[in-house]
From TrEMBL:
It comes from the Bacteria. This is Transcobalamin-like C-terminal domain-containing protein. PROSITE patterns: PROKAR_LIPOPROTEIN (PS51257). Residues 66-127 form the Transcobalamin-like C-terminal domain. The keyword Signal applies. The lineage of its organism: Bacteria, Bacillati, Bacillota, Clostridia, Eubacteriales. The keyword Signal applies.
Length: 136
């Protein structure tokens, strides 16, 4: 019985590690690890995520998507709701903020400057640095 339980546990661990046969793209449960390179494609950009405590995760995104939003949605590292202004991003790299409930939101930056366009309307610029920062 002990061998059978050990065998089942080993199988479960293997399935979890390989994502049930899916290719590991550097994202686990919507979270990219610091220093990871995620996705595939001809264009590449750096993504920084700064949480409400100042913790920072930086990763590289490779993509063929036309917009930063599409690239990040494709990798599962952002989620939100459609609005009349575009995608209202509520979750970034596994962290959910909602202005209506906690007074915080995800601010979007392009090369260190506050973005004048939403993430889903911002074209991918090869080599650019994009950031989401938790702000009040």
């Amino acid at each position: 019985m002990k061998k059978m339980v050990t065998g089942v546990l080993a199988l479960v661990m293997v399935l979890v590690m390989v994502g049930c046969g899916q290719k590991d793209n550097g994202v686990v449960n919507g979270v990219a690890k610091d220093g990871a390179t995620i996705g595939e494609g001809a264009k590449s950009f750096t993504m920084e995520v700064v949480d409400k405590d100042g913790g920072k995760v930086t990763f590289t995104v490779k993509t063929d998507a036309d917009t930063v939003g599409k690239a990040l949605l494709d990798q599962g590292v952002i989620a939100g709701e459609d609005s009349s202004y575009g995608l209202y991003v509520k979750t970034v790299n596994g962290i959910t903020l909602d202005y209506d409930t906690d007074g915080m939101y995800w601010a979007f930056y392009i090369n260190g400057e506050y973005a004048q366009t939403g993430v889903d309307a911002t074209g991918v610029e090869d080599g650019a640095v994009y950031a989401f920062r938790a702000e009040k």
